[in-house]
Amino acid sequence: MMVTSGFANNEAFYSTNAFYKGMEAFNERLKTVCDRNNIAYIDLKLPKTTASFYDDFHFNESGALLASDQIYQALKPLLKH
Q1: Cβ-contact 59, 52 below 8 angstroms
Q2: pTM of the model
Q3: Residue 31 shares a structural domain with residue 1
Q4: Which pLDDT score is estimated for 80?
Q5: Domain span holding position 13
Q6: By the number of CB atoms within 10 A of the CB, which of 13, 36, 79, 81 ranks highest?
Q7: Which SUPFAM superfamilies match (predicted)?
Q8: Residue 77 carries which DSSP code?
Q9: Would the pLDDT of 25 be above 90?
Q10: pLDDT at residue 70 is higher than 80
Q11: Tell me: the pLDDT tens digits for 27-65?
């Protein structure tokens, strides 16, 4: 779904609402594919605020630390000592 609220460099862009709906749909589809194919899937539970992100997609330093900790915790049981 593409909803434009303006143009940047003469190109349409996604509204924030459309972006989040698209990402949620993508993540759900990815999880379904992983589940069907017995592939590990780490669902990062990060607050979608400036506490974790510096824009709509990229982690800031705090978000990167939170994400890396969640990834480590998910993989830790699989690591051989």
Answers
A1: yes
A2: 0.66
A3: yes
A4: 81
A5: 1-39
A6: 13
A7: SGNH hydrolase (SSF52266)
A8: G
A9: yes
A10: yes
A11: 999 999 999 999 989 998 888 888 998 887 789 999 999
Does residue 16 share a domain with residue 1? yes
Closest C-alpha among 30, 31, 4, 6 to residue 18: 4
pLDDT on residue 4: 44
Q: What phi-psi label fits residue 44: left (phi over 0), alpha (psi between -120 and 50 degrees) or beta?
A: beta
Please check whether residues 5 and 25 belong to one and the same domain. yes
Distance of CA 47 to the CA centre of its chain: 11
| DSSP codes, 41-60 | -------SSTTTBSSSS-B-
Residue with tokens 């003469």: 10
Asked if 47 and 81 sit in the same domain, the reply is yes
From 63, 25, 57, select the one nearest 45 (Cα to Cα): 63
Q: Which residue from 23, 24, 4, 26 is spatially nearest to 13, judged by alpha carbons?
A: 4
